[in-house]
Write a structure and sequence with these properties.
The complex is a heterodimer of chains A (384) and B (295).
Chain A (H helix, E strand, L loop, with lengths): L9 E6 H11 L2 E6 L6 H13 L3 E4 L3 H13 L3 E6 L1 H17 L3 E9 L5 E5 L4 H6 L8 E3 L4 H18 L2 E7 H5 L1 E6 L43 E3 L13 H16 L2 H4 L2 E4 L6 E5 L1 H6 L1 H9 L4 E6 L1 E3 L3 H8 L4 E5 L6 H9 L4 E5 L9 H12 L1
Parallel strand pairs in A: 2-3, 2-4, 4-5, 5-8, 7-8, 12-13, 12-15, 15-16
Antiparallel strand pairs in A: 1-9, 5-6, 7-14, 11-13
Helix pairs in contact in A: 1-2, 1-6, 3-4, 11-14, 12-13
Chain B lengths: L25 H15 L6 E5 L7 H4 L3 E4 L5 H11 L4 E7 H7 L1 H10 L3 E7 L2 E2 L5 E2 L23 H8 L3 E6 L3 H13 L3 E7 L6 H4 L5 H11 E3 L16 E8 L5 H9 L27
Parallel strand pairs in B: 1-2, 1-3, 3-4, 4-8, 7-8, 9-10
Antiparallel strand pairs in B: 5-6, 7-10
Chain lengths: 384, 295
Amino acid sequence: MESESDVLAGEHFLSGNEACAEGAIAAGCRFFAGYPITPSTEVAEHLAERLPEVGGIFVQMEDEIASMNAILGAAWGGKKTMTATSGPGFSLMMENLGLGVMTETPCVLVNVQRGGPSTGLPTLVGQGDMMQARWGSHGPYEIIALSPSSPQEFFDFTIKAFNLSEQWRVPVLVMADEVVGHMTEKVTIPEQDSINLVARRTPRVSPEKYRPYEPDEDLVPQMAIAGTGYRMHITGLTHDRKGYPVINEEAQGELVQRLVDKIRRNRNKIIEYQEDMCDGADVIVCSYGISARTSLLPIEKARDEGIKVGLLKLVVVWPFPEERIDRLAGNCKGFVVPEINFGQISLEVERCAHGKAKVIQVPHAGGGIHDPEKVLEAIRRAAA
Amino acid sequence: MNERHPKDEMLREDRIPHIWCSGCGLGTCLAAFISAVQDSGIPREKMCVVSGIGCTGRVAGYLNVDSFHTTHGRAIPFAAGLHLANPSLKIVVFSGDGDLIAIGGNHFIHSARRNLDMTVICVNNFNYGMTGGQGGPTTPLGSRTTTTPYGNFEFPFSIPYLAAASGASYVARWTALDTRRLIKSMGEALHKRGFSVVEIISPCPTLYNRLNKQGSGLDVLKRYQRDTVIQHGADPSKVAIEKEGKIIVGKFVDIERPTFLDLVKERLGDKFKGPWEKLEPPEVPLEVTIPSADE
C-alpha cells in the first residue's frame, strides 16, 4: 500500500505543525482524528489533505473526547494513529488518555501548548501543560512525553513518538508549543528507507494460546488486531492477563505495577536529552521546547562573561532524567530552569537535585517567550 | 454426551455467570443478539462489539468476539475509529440509555449525522442501573428514581426521534418481551449499510420498576404485553414513552443514504487509495419495505 512517494524526502520550508503532520506520515500514521483548535489546527488541516494521498483516513470528530477515543479504536483496528490539540482540548483528552494507558494502546497525542488556564491565549505560547502531561488522567500511571524546539525536531520527534508508542504500548505525548508549531523553517525529510520504524508487536502465538495482557520479558504484552481471529476482550477496568475484569486489590497490584514498571524499568531505553558543555559547568540551564531554544542567547552571553554554563535540553521530558540531574547536581553550583509557566519542570529538577545544587526557576505567564536578560540574570545568580 | 448450548460458541463461558439481576431484561437482549448474529451469516472473526459503562456496558465482556469495554459514553467514537481503520469489520455498539444518550449523546447524534456504518443497540431501562437507580435522559416525566425523589421534572429524550432526526438509516424499537421481532430487527440492522439503531425497552426490577411500584420483572413484561402497540413506519416524533400507557414499537426508519465512507470515496475519486473494495453494497439488496403490523 505504501509507496516511496508517501514520504516527501527532501528539503522543505515548513511550519512546525506541518512538519509534525509530515512526521506522522513518515512514521506510518494512517489515521488521524481531531477537532479544530488554535494553535494546533494546521496539523489537522495538513493531514486532511495528505492522509488520503497515502491511503489513510482523516476524520474530524465532534470534540476532543471523541477524537481521543477514535484514535484508540483505530489503533485496535490496526492503524498507527494520532490526534493533535491544544489547551482545552488537551484537558478533554485526559479521560481517554487513561483508557489508552490502561488498555496499552499505542497512539500519539500532540499538544501545541498555548497560554492558559481556560481559554487563555489561544494564539499565543504557553508551556503550562507539562505536569498535566505527566498526571492529567486519573489514577497512578507512567507516560512518555517529548518536547520539540524547532520544526525539524517536531518532524523528528513525531516519528520518535510513534516508535516509542509502539515499542512500549503506551500513548506518547508530543508537547510542542505555539511558537514551535507556527515557526517556519527548513525541514529536512529523509528518504523513507533511512527512517527507522518500530512495527507493532503483534501476537507470536495462536489465538488459542493468546492472552492479551501476558507480558513479554520487557513487561510489554503482544497486541492482537481486531478482525484477525484472536477474539480478545479489552477493558478499561482493572483486568487480568486474559483481559478479563477483576475487581480486587491483587489484580490492581499486578496490573498497575506492571504498567508503571514497564516505563520505569525501561527508562534508560526511553530517556533522551541533549547536553552542551554540561561537564565541568558551574551552571546548567535545563529546559525544553521553545524555552530551550531561547536560552541559547543568554547562555552565549553568560559564557562571554566567563561563566561556565551548560545546556541540558530535554528531548524526552517524561520519564524524567532523574539520575542525570542528580549526577550533574553534585558537580555544579546551580540549575536555571526557564519555562513558560510558574514552575513545573523546575520542581522536578529541584526534586532530583536532592539539595546538592540550587535551582532557580525563570517563570513566565505565557503569551511570549523569555526575555534573554531574565535568563542571563538567573544564570549569574546561579553562578554566584 | 456433553451437550453444548447452541449459543455457547458466542459466549465467553469462563465469564458466566453474568452480573445482571434476576428479572433484568439484559440476558434476553444478549440472547436475542446472539441469535441475530448466528442467523446473519456474518463471520464471527469480523465482528467487533464495543460497549461503554453500565449494566448494558457489560455485554461486550460476555461475547466471544473481539470486544471492547471502553469508558462511559465513549463506545461510539471508539467504534468509529475501529470502523474507519478497517471497514471490513462489522461494528456493533451495545450499551445503555444513560451511556449512549446522556454522556455519549453528542457522539450518538454526530455519528448518526455522518451515517457511519455501524449498528447501535441501546437497551433503555429508563435509569442508571449500575450506580443504583438514578434518573437519566430517558426517564419519563414524573418517574421516581434515586435522584428524582419528587418525581422526574425533566423532559426525556425519545431515542427513535433523536436517532431519526440526526440522520440514522435504520431505527427500530422493541421490548425485551418480543424477542422474535427483536431478533429479526437486529438482523436487519446488522445488514443495514449506515447507522442503524435498535432501542430495546427493558425491565429494571431492582431499581426503576421497584422505585415506581411497577412490580417484578415478570409484571413489567406483562405490562409490555398489554401496552405494546406495533406501528411500523410510525412518525418517530410521535413515539415518546410515558410512565404509564402504550409503548409504540416497530421499525420506524429504514432508508438508503450514503454512508460516511461512500461520500469519502465519492469526493476523493481516483485520489483515494483506501481499502474500498470491501465497501461495495451487499450482493442481495435488503428489503426496504415497511412490514405490516402482524408480521
